[in-house]
Amino acid sequence: MEGMSSRSPPAGSYSNGHHNHKPQGGGRDQFRSRKSRHTTAGGRVSGDAEPPPPCTDFDKAYFQSYSHVGIHEEMIKDRVRTETYRTAILQHQSHIEGKVVVDVGCGTGILSIFCAQAGAKRVYAVDASEIALQANEVVKANNLSDKIIVLHGRVEDVQIDEEVDVIISEWMGYMLLYESMLGSVIVARDRWLRPGGLILPSNAVLYMAPVTHPDRYAESIDFWRNVYGIDMSPILPLAKQCAFEEPSVETISGENVLTWPHVVKHVDCYTITIQELESVTTKYRFQSMMRAPFHGFAFWFDVEFSGPANNDAPSSVEESPKTAASVSHRRKRANPDEALVLSTAPEDPPTHWQQTMVYFYDPIEVEQDQVIEGSATLTQSKENARFMNIHLEYS
């Protein structure tokens, strides 16, 4: 997911309230594009029987934002991201070699080229952004025009007249689901993927946890208490609003996290439907591991690259109580023999996704072992499904 972290912060508003032990985010939490993704989310497609959903002005603006090479540069330079995808392609080479692949939201075409290098018979590289024109030139420059077919258009609109064996896509947005690009992968799956085909990544898990971040609070808020010896504290309410009314994409460390994480949503890319993405609700219960000021919540995600043989196997991570989810989360990443995982967790090497923070206007002191419980709901904006509304409650 690129774009925003180095360009401008996500703009939305999670409609923060002063802490009354139940701040409720609701409102138009429209983080702007992270990397304003290429393909669009649409309804489920059953063959070609139903007409595709119209391309809205929001979609056109989204695709246009991916025409800027800087967004793709940021994604490609994220070595954790790009090298994990290349490793996943090589690990699943036996499923790719001699097979037909579709790359959903191909961007500059780098994942399509990795697949061609792994021996794919044919790769359909699909992108609705103008960057597809450059991707086609990149394919020619690497003498791969006989293997890679660049299709400039939405997944809902382009035609592929054969079943495909593999779908690959880097669809993840901030907080995993922001930008709604997963919908495009679902459309591609339902239109073209043969039974028993491979989807990379195959699974994803969104996590949340309470955090303490006194340095960020000091830099943004306490700074105004004494500015060159002048009391500028009347600025404080506005400073809190400007700093914390919207989700913030930034990097924290494991030391900022107060509890084990909670699983907000597990995504199985083989079975999830577009309807499931419209609204996600979870109830959480945390127990603080330390005495500290509680500044808000952090969200991050993992994606897993497992083979098609695991389609019917139960997932190792479910939306379960925090302890079980946390143990599974750590065990998965710690065991190199298990499925390859790309993680954006605070304790792992940083990525361009960083972590998504939802801050309170004022911190709350919590004691060790104190319970924090409540609910979180993530809903696609009715005005623009690529945006997300965040509603948080806690006590």
UniProtKB/TrEMBL annotation:
CDD domains: AdoMet_MTases (cd02440). Residues 203-308, 338-395 form the Protein arginine N-methyltransferase domain. Residues 1-57, 311-336 are annotated as: Disordered. The keyword S-adenosyl-L-methionine applies. One of its GO terms (molecular function) is histone methyltransferase activity. This is Protein arginine N-methyltransferase domain-containing protein. Arginine methyltransferase that can both catalyze the formation of omega-N monomethylarginine (MMA) and asymmetrical dimethylarginine (aDMA). The keyword Methyltransferase applies. Residues 1-17, 311-326 have a biased composition (Polar residues). Keywords: Methyltransferase, S-adenosyl-L-methionine, Transferase. Coiled coil: none annotated. GO terms for biological process: methylation. InterPro entries: Arg_MeTrfase, PRMT_dom, SAM-dependent_MTases_sf.
